[in-house]
Design a protein that fits this description.
By secondary structure, the chain is α/β, with parallel strands linked by helices. The chain has one domain: TIM Barrel, CATH 3.20.20. The protein has nine helices and ten strands. The strands form two sheets. Strands 9-8-7-4-3-2-1-10 form an eight-stranded parallel beta sheet. Helix 1 runs parallel beside helix 9 and helix 7 packs across helix 8. The longest helix is centred in the middle third of the chain and has 25 residues. The protein is globular and about 60 Å long. About 40% of the residues are buried.
């Protein structure tokens, strides 16, 4: 990991995200402590990262996820300040995947069936999605409460389509039927310190459009409930053509990634958030995550090929 930290420092990476499933805090404590201490000394913040579609209640539920948060808190309390994680990023995506079919992909809210027996989890398709969205919010609300009590930050990866799912927003009454029905994004955003829009698309116009609604809504929130909103660019191979620069002909190069980033910036040239900003966490529409999954041996190559130019803030994922 020494090479990774050296390369991160050279590339001016500000934040590293370590995949930390439940159990790893104790099993790998001897590795985590010196790594985070060295990162802290290099002015690099280290986040924990966990997520799984199975953490929702239509599967095994949130038990392991919440245990991981408890383990993170225990780890931070047991080590010195320079060996601590700054927070957790969750990546729990609610859409249908493999055996999970309760979101009912491809159907806008208004077209979901309300006929008894149409659901796969509850009695109807509409109720399936309603209860799934409530559960999705609940697990993030619980995590937010647990982390913020310990002065830890909470970040989450969010689908880009919550406001425009086949032409209409995904809405929910939360936490109960008697509460206001509005976009699930509106309920989610105040829970988070970082709202990461998975906007990755190799067409800059599409990518910019995918964060427009989120950034605009965040700008209306009170400062204390306003997360940092980031767009994202996917660069890993084997993800999908037009989704990842690593898979798209004519786009698989550092120069094109940086060129397209500039184009997105030009389309999103208005600073979203007013109020005081600091040098570390300035947030405007032109902030980006570049997502890549890799083993530690590949870290320096990826840093040199992708992250060497200005991306503010610069963030790197170790999955």
């Amino acid at each position: 990991m020494a090479d990774l930290l050296a390369a991160s420092a050279a590339a001016r990476i500000s934040d590293l995200y370590l995949y930390t499933p439940p159990g790893c805090y104790s099993d790998r404590r001897g590795q985590l402590q010196p790594f985070i201490a060295n990162a802290t000394a290099a002015d690099i913040r280290v986040w924990a990262l966990d997520g799984d579609r199975g953490y929702l209640d239509d599967s095994i539920g949130p038990g392991n996820f919440l245990q991981g948060i408890a383990d993170l808190i225990d780890y931070n309390q047991a080590v010195s300040a320079d060996e601590r994680f700054v927070g957790l990023q969750a990546d729990i995506e609610p859409q249908d995947q493999d055996a999970y079919t309760t979101f009912h992909n491809g159907i806008p809210d208004e077209a979901l069936s309300t006929a008894p027996g149409s659901g796969t989890w509850h009695s109807t398709q509409a109720l399936d999605r309603e209860m799934l969205m409530r559960n999705w919010l609940t697990i993030h609300q619980t995590a937010s409460d647990l982390l913020h009590r310990q002065n830890l930050q909470f970040s989450a990866a969010m689908p880009f389509w919550t406001e425009t799912y086949y032409g209409s927003p995904v809405q929910v009454n939360f936490p109960s039927d008697t509460d206001l029905r509005q976009s699930v994004m509106n309920y989610m955003m105040p829970l988070l310190d970082e709202y990461i829009v998975m906007s990755y698309n190799t067409d800059p116009t599409n990518a910019a459009n995918r964060v427009e609604a989120q950034a605009s809504y965040a700008s209306t929130l009170p400062v204390k409930k306003r997360p940092r909103v980031y767009a994202a660019m996917e660069v890993s191979p084997n993800v999908g053509e037009t989704i990842s620069y690593g898979d798209t002909a004519g786009k698989n190069s550092k120069s094109v990634v940086l060129r397209d980033r500039t184009r997105i910036e030009e389309m999103q040239d208005k600073a979203v958030f007013s109020g005081e900003r600091n040098s570390r966490d300035t947030w405007v529409r032109r902030c980006f995550f570049l997502y890549t999954a890799f083993g530690s041996s590949e870290g320096e190559t990826i840093l040199n090929s992708v992250f060497y130019e200005k991306v503010t803030p610069r963030r790197l994922y170790l999955l």
